[in-house]
Amino acid sequence: MSDKVLEVKNLKTYFYTDKGVVKAVDGVDFSIEYGKTLGIVGESGCGKSITSMSVLRLIPTPPGKIEDGEVLFEGRDLLKVSDKEIRSIRGNDISMIFQEPMTSLNPVFTIGDQIMEALMLHQKLTDEEARKKAIEMIKLVNIPRAEKIVDEYPHQLSGGMRQRVMIAMSLACMPKLLIADEPTTALDVTIQAQVLEIMNDLKEKLNTAIMLITHDLGVIAEMADHVIVMYCGKVVEEAPVQELFDNPKHPYTMGLLNSKPSIIENKERLESIEGSVPNPKFLPKGCYFNPRCKFAIEKCRQEQPTLEEITPGHKVSCFVACKEVE
Amino acid sequence: MESKVMIEDSQQQNIPKEQSIGPWKMVWIKFKKKKIALVGVFILVILVLSSVFAPFLTPYGQEEMNFTNINAAPSREHLLGTDNLGRDYLTRLLYGGRISLMVGVISAFISVTLGSTIGGIAGFFGGRIDNVLMRFAEIVMSFPFLPLAITISAVVGADVEPETKMYIVMMIIGGLSWPGLSRIVRGQILSLKEQEFVLAAKALGIPNYKIILKHLIPNTIGYIIVSAALGMAGAIMSESALSFLGLGVVPPTPTWGNMVQNARNLHVLRTRPWLWIPPGIAILAAVMSINLIGDGLRDAIDPKSNN
User: Where is the ABC transporter domain (chain A) (predicted)?
Assistant: First the structure.
């Protein structure tokens, strides 16, 4: 138990809109161990980002609300601590990288100021120490001319550099957990590779756990130790990365893996999953995936499956898959 | 490996050192191009310097009376003549500038502080807080300025020292002119707070007040500076108007406003123009130069006016 840095139990985040309740995250369980990477995959709108934001209580309320569940960070329930405590955890013990490097930096401050801000706030460093540390962090993420970059403004950097600055910022206080919300989506492939490499490097150096959110299976294969697949706010499959790619059980996971391009097979068209993600306000009865599922049986249309462990470490939420194993 | 190092070296030598241009430097470069704004700066600097160094520029004291020489026309001893108590008028004009400009600066400061804080809080928190603050701003805004200022000045400032009266005037002007800025700042912050850097700041554990002060307000600083400049001009005008009506700063403390008051007397208006033309010109010069600077700053700060 003690090797888990973060444990999320039955997390439910709902949004109350005029047109009804959106269950963006509906009973999600997962945990991350120190120094490991947990990948979260799923289509757009399946609740990946909301899950990560719920962990840090960054959900805009109203309309959002964390209805139920526990987020245990080193045994402390983050959903119950005071605002002051959560602020001292944000950026210090848990920090976050966002999807959009272009807008995630404040345009009117220099890079150095922005990295220093968290350092001075959490680590109580003096101006000078913080500046030294900022330069060190910029070097750590492989940006050349670190001494000059500290005094430059975000608009003077390229997207990849900005994303690396974001990483430098979030790692400055040596967090125990780094939440990376699609850190490479907005970057081109060569920069993606660099950014991922930096994250992997730092994971080893600082023993930081990473919660990696992405819809890019290639990134998952490269980075993650353990993967959860989300669909409509629920975890549909959870497995070690190798197991998931070799032996996917849930029809949705299979669909995802089938729809990725491959260099070995020469396919004319990529496969896709039929249909589209259901409107979260009008979810289908039974298993949320049943209208798009090739293997759906009558039971899938009536009852909701729960996450069952079929082999050690491999959990799946599907009646058909569970039956197969039996 | 060695060749690579050599290439890097030669590159470093050939490429001229790139100067980092910060936003303020950019504003200054653009501002310098506006000649008319520079004229404004020039005039304002002269006015400020001459009132700051007033004791060195004239041999007389501001309340030094000479009853043997009242209502004298401009001469070599008294460049702008003397008033009905025999006080040197140039001296009073210079010292008056101190008060008038100070009222302008401090009122603008009060109004900008109130306006940006209230607007910032309203925009950032939204919801009920926003509603209450903005309705309050509208209430303040819906009273016509001059009648309200006159009423407050008459009620609060009835039996006080001239010195105190000056501060009361500043507070009245500052306290009544913030709603416009607060609405602008609120609108800006409403759109700024949706940007990801605010979420990023929250994710770094930065407290709300710091997010407002350090991350949001500086992004609206362009509007705030322009509003401060224009507000300062407005405050000088308001002070002059109140003093002209006898409800602002009262004699013997000179201000440009209560010096223009002399023009209320028809006899003075006709026969002693040196008593009301110079302070009038001083007010005009100050207000105009500040407005020119404000316009120049607006164009320089607005990134869209990139020509």
Answer: 6-257
Closest to A158 (Cα-Cα) out of A141, A147, A143, A179:
A143
| CATH code of B134's domain | 1.10.3720.10
Are the Cβ atoms of B204 and A56 closer than 8 angstroms?
no
Contacts of B219 in chain A (CB under 8 A): 106-108
**Closest CA in chain A for residue B217:** A108
Domain of residue B36, residue span:
22-59+81-301
What is residue A21's three-state secondary structure? strand
Q: Does B215 touch chain A (CB under 8 A)?
A: yes
Question: Does residue B214 lie in a domain region?
Answer: yes
Residue B1 lies inside a defined structural domain of this protein? no
Minimal CA separation from B301 to chain A, in Å: 12
Residue B104 is assigned to a structural domain of this protein: yes
pLDDT of residue B284: 92
Q: What is the pTM of this model?
A: 0.73
- ipTM score of complex: 0.74
User: For chain B, how many structural domains are there in total?
Assistant: 1
Ordered by start, the domain boundaries in chain A are: 251-326
Pairing of strands A308-311, A177-181: unpaired
| Minimal Cβ distance to A151: which of B20, B197, B199 | B20
Task: Note the residue count of chain A.
Answer: 326
- Which pLDDT value is given to residue B6? 44
Least Cα distance to B111 among B190, B187, B172 occurs for B172
Least Cα distance to A139 among A184, A172, A104, A106 occurs for: A172
> Would the CB atoms of B205 and A92 count as touching at under 8 Å?
yes
B136 lies in some domain: yes
Distance between A216 CA and the closest CA of chain B, angstroms: 22
